[in-house]
Amino acid sequence: MAISRKLKDDLIKYFFLLTALVSIVALALIMVYLFLEGLPLFKTVSVPSFLFGQFWYPTADPGEFGIFPLIVASIAVTLFSSLIAIPLGVMTAVYLAEIAGPRTRGALKPLVELLAALPSVVIGFFGMVVVAPFLQETLDLATGLNLFNAGLMLAFMSVPTICSVSEDAIYAVPRELKEASLALGATHWETIRRVVLPRASSGILTGLIL
Question: Which locations, inside or outside the cell, does it occupy (predicted)?
Answer without folding.
Answer: Cell membrane
